[in-house]
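Please, structure for the following, as tokens.
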Amino acid sequence: MNTSLPLQHDFPKQALATLVGGISTFFAIVIVWVLGYQLIYAGRIFPGVSVAGVDISGLSPGDAAVKLSQTLSYPHTGKVLFRDGERVWVASPSELGMVFDPTASAMAAYNYGRKGGLFSALSGQISAGGLGVDVPPVVIFDQRVAYNYLQNISTQVNQSVVEASLRLEGTNVIAESGQYGRALNLDATLIYLGAQLQSFRDGEVQLV
């Protein structure tokens, strides 16, 4: 009796069952890993997580917020330089409307590796535990304050267009040179300023 035909019919079912079983096992391992990792570090920030270069791994969000507020003084001690030719203006980030939010920054660090779905959480946990992750600080940028500061600069750099001209003084012809116009683009400069403040580093912002 030939029994090869039933076996051939059963092979696709066996292969499918093996594939489904393998996928199910894989998902089970991922779920156990992600949930287990979160249980081990329940209420604490995962290892390898920092904010603006400050290591806060293993801390609770509350303790991390305290450490960040005590360590990160950039809003008050940082320097942002504006340049127009040979003239420069220097201001601290706080003078430009920047406020650092240590509580929100600590929560962003705490949520790293916990939000965004199963595989996103797994990827975050692995990357933080491996090479480490630096979470961007949460800042509040009051553009009205920065706008007023830039307006003050604009009164010093803006200039009207003056056409070149000729005039007579008696029998002499006097040539008067013209002047190029200049108007500071406040909106464009604000965009560059916002990017510089977000970097949490001293730097120069080009006046546009």
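The radius of gyration is 31 Å. The chain has one domain: 41-206.
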